[in-house]
Amino acid sequence: MPDPIARTYLSLGAFYASDPARRTSRERDVGLFWRSEQGPTFRAAFVHDTGEFYLFQHALGGRGGGSVRLFAERMTEAELDVRLEGWEDVCGRKGSYEWLLERMGATAPVPPTPSPAGRRFLRGLTLPAVA
User: Fold this and answer.
1) Cα separation, 68 vs 54, whole angstroms
2) What are the phi and psi torsion angles at 125 (to 5°)?
3) In sequence order, what DSSP letters do the residues of 29-48 get, joined into one string?
4) Does pTM surpass 0.85?
5) Inter-residue contact 7 to 70 (CB < 8 Å)
6) Tens-place pLDDT, residues 97-123
7) Element (H, E) at 9
């Protein structure tokens, strides 16, 4: 699978400065705490005016924030919703960052992961591998 990340910026400020349309656009948060298997956490957001979807790595104590990873594919908000169907049940779990990368790197939307009935957040639950 090709890397779905097109570009990395050293900071959120650098990301916004590189395209003036980003500064004035509304954004939609798509999860505030995507957890990597290796430890880092990320916020995901969709930029309405540019059709961009990005990940912001939470900073480890320094001012100015962490790095930004911009996904290669531009899409509409509706297309993003199809691609990430079920994300609310995955975000916050260990390994959710890898789940997100896999969904964004797929050439077609991946079928949603079934969620346990009646429970939104489960601690210690291992995410199923996506083929």
Assistant:
1) 7
2) -80, 130
3) E--S-EE-TTS-EEEEEEET
4) no
5) yes
6) 999 999 998 654 444 444 444 444 444
7) strand 5-9
